[in-house]
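Q: I'm building a small set of examples for a reading group on sequence design. Run inverse folding on the following structure and report the sequence directly after it, with nothing in between.
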């Protein structure tokens, strides 16, 4: 009986200190993507299905934070199936989210099904830029759309794609709305550097 008590204490401690369900879901998504058909076009759109569950809601619709959480899992699947994750590991690099912006157009209600459509739109010397759309299976409406800037650490998108494709890949053009967002990020960064006095130190 004592060992059951110790197991219970260990589980309570684990679930209190870590977001265990996040890591379990991430592992399940990666394992599923591993067994799915590879997607050889790195810019191809990939689709994950989902449904709004009781744990996802506030006021009977999907909590705004849950959208970002679902986008995490969709990116894991995207990078696993198109080979980017494998290339990142082979090059000893890593990727972190540098910025996101999301626009909510209509609430996803409890029990409502949706498709999360993710794609790499373009890239620059430091980052991949992704678009992720939540599309209702009820009427096909785009209920939310997010842009994500995925920074590459100890590497670059060009190196990753050359390792993956064995040739130089031409970077797609930046859509106008994405370029506006990138300009905002740059302006915000400059303002924060000036506020903290970093620009004067650089001079």
């Amino acid at each position: 009986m004592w060992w059951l008590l110790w197991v219970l204490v260990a589980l309570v401690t684990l679930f209190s200190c870590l977001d265990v369900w996040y890591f379990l879901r991430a592992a399940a998504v990666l394992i599923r993507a591993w067994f799915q058909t590879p997607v050889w076009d790195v810019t191809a759109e990939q689709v994950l299905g989902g449904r709004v569950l009781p744990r996802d809601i506030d006021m009977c619709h999907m909590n705004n934070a849950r959208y970002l959480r679902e986008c995490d899992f969709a990116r894991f699947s995207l990078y696993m199936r198109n080979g980017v994750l494998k290339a990142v590991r082979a090059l000893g690099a890593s990727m972190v989210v540098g910025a996101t912006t999301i626009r909510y157009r209509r609430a996803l209600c409890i029990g409502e099904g949706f498709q999360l459509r993710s794609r790499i739109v373009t890239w620059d010397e430091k980052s991949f830029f992704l678009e992720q759309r939540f599309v209702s299976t009820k009427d096909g409406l785009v209920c939310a759309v997010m842009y994500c800037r995925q920074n590459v650490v100890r590497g670059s998108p060009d190196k990753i794609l050359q390792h993956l494709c064995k040739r130089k890949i031409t970077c797609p053009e930046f859509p106008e709305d994405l370029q506006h967002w990138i300009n905002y990020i740059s302006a915000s960064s400059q303002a924060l550097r000036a506020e903290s006095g970093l620009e004067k130190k650089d001079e």
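The first strand starts at residue 46 and ends at 51.
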